[in-house]
Amino acid sequence: MVKIYESPDGGKTVYERDTVTGDRVCIEKEQHPDWHIDPYDFDLIMEMANDGNKTLQNLLKEVKLIFNLSYTEE
Fold first, then answer.
1. Where are the alpha helices (DSSP H) in 1-74?
2. Number of domains comprising the chain
C-alpha cells in the first residue's frame, strides 16, 4: 500500500492519503494555546457581536480595555 503525504499550508498541517481508497487522514496539525482565536473565527465573533449578541459585545469590551491598558507604543 502506497501513501501520499500532502500539506496545503506549507507543513503546518500534514495529511496522509491512501492511494488505493483515496482516504485522507490528518496526521499532524499546528497546535495553538486554548485562548487562540484564528482570524476566520474572530471575524465570526465580530459579526455576531455586530448582530446584537450582548454577551460577545461585553466580552469584547473587556478584551479591548485590557488591551488598551496593556499596550504601550515604543
1. 39-50, 54-70
2. 2
User: Cell 488505493 identifies what position?
Assistant: 20
DSSP secondary structure of 19-32: TTT--EEEEE----
Q: Are residues 5 and 26 in the same domain?
A: yes
Q: Which three cell numbers stand for residue 42?
A: 474572530
The whole-number pLDDT of residue 53 equals: 98
Q: What is the pLDDT of residues 43-69, one digit of tens each?
A: 999 999 999 999 999 999 999 999 999
Q: Which domain holds residue 53?
A: 39-70
| 14-51 pLDDT, tens digit each | 999 999 999 999 999 888 899 999 899 999 999 999 99
Average pLDDT, the chain: 93
Write out the three cell numbers for 21: 481508497
